[in-house]
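Reading a protein record of the kind used here takes little practice once its layout is understood. The reader may check this reading against the record printed directly beneath this paragraph.
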Amino acid sequence: MKRYLLMLAAGFMALTSCEDFLDTESYTKQTSDNFPASEQDVDNMVTGVYSVLNSLSTDYSSSYFFVAEVASDDRFGGGGANDKHFQAPGHLLNFGTDMLRPAWIDYYKGIYRANMAIENLARSSELVSESALSNYEGQVHFLRAFYTNDMAEMWGSIPLPFSSEAQNLPKTDIDVIYGQIAYDLKSAIELLPSSKYSETVSGRITKWAAEALMARVFLFYTGFYQKSDLPLGDGTGNNVGSVTKDEVIAWIDDCVANSGHSLVNDYRRLWAYSNPYTAKDYDFVSDLAASGETWAVDGENPEHVFVIKCSSMSDWGTVTGYGNQWDLAFGLRDPGNGTENTFPFGRGWGVGSVSPDLWNDWKENEPLDPRREASMFSVAEDYPDYVQGADRQMEDSQFWPKKYMPIQAYDENGVRKNTFASLMFGRSDDAYDLGHVDDLCLIRYADVLLMQSELKESAEGINAVRARVGLPPISYSQEALRQERRFELAFEGRRWADIRRWHIAEECLRSQVGQPIYNEGRPSTMKDFGTGYVARYQATNGFFKIPESEVSLSSGMLTQNAGWEGTDSEYIGW
């Protein structure tokens, strides 16, 4: 059964100062002096920190996951002719004054809530057991590290508050930022129980997720900044030591050996198109339907280490839960596509078609790899009735991902549903825009194995991943590791960080120029905008523009990132 977290904690959201005009005690409001007052308050407070994950789904087009996908060399921006905010980050450009401000606000909301929760958990020992308190503290430390790390990869140096006090801060030194991230993750590892992942409520943070994120952070920081160790802070803005590679290897080994996580037996079962209501009518996975071994449902998937939970009860602007809005963004543009002619892949905004280079490189380097067809489709080979230029579709390569897409299904009477959630989870309105229920997996166990291989310079993890899809074992090399990550983790938000930390971003981005595409149904080729991919990367180092309104609100305290000062950084469209 799919389990959901209550994503907003009203009490936590309503915290106010207890000092009013008469300095009297408040008996009707939850304040910083009287909250938390019960075990339920503690749980609500921690759940409030989680809820920002789902705010990022609502603000999907400015989230790091979205921006990293379209900025990478393996995907294009796309959308319609007027969707410049979708296309701009794909060209390392900006559109408008505040293109990424929703995510900026969400991330700071998460950091602020985490700061407040950590401060209040410190005085909650009488409300919950010692083990429960440690567990809560570990979860919040992880979430603060996650929000901070997304911001650091997206914007580089940012103002980082170390308490819930409202402050106007300048940018924090990048080593201090990473010291804080390492402090939070080390705290989470030490505080969270060593229980198997399956003993934890779906969607809640585990020690294993903290160990995996520590490895991810270590690899990015040491690679991108060309350092040997990761700084370690004390939680107050001071660095007091470092995290070594040997320590990270010990943690990732612990995750592999003791977490209980494992690889799903069939790669196709990771993705929602293999759900039982769709698989019976989709030839590519009809064998799974016949065997009864279909989609590894979110919440029961041994490969899910850290996910953003999504709900079949989602609605606009309510607290009843959030659907997977990334699915909607990456869906096929209608009228024309996303219907019977592209079954089972449904309609959406037409963002993120795949660079033909990936399709071709995959075939050339791993001709027997079934993951290519499990991860993406070719219009020419799979959907002859695909409509060119549907709803003014831009940057259409004719290759589309299969992961994180709207998935249709037919009911028992042969009536096509916009989303399989209508049948599998009883969503009554069959909403094509809100009905996407597959959780967004941000750390998958295959990634853990590949990070283990990279850290240890061993082929063991790589070959475990390859064996799952029937590929022969190989010897370890940096080139082999990079290729395996590109193929195994395609369209899962990691390619952008990988090419940056390996210092191959410029050559990878250069390959996009000249790729064949269709704009509004007309043949074209991908081209440089502004000063071009390579010059833009050199100017920005891959960091994005800080929202202009945030710079203005700081009254000169916050400075803009390099490369975003002039008109050359603005996207004007095709």
Q: What stands out?
A: Residues 220 and 498 are 8 Å apart (CA to CA). The radius of gyration is 23 Å. The first strand starts at residue 230 and ends at 233.
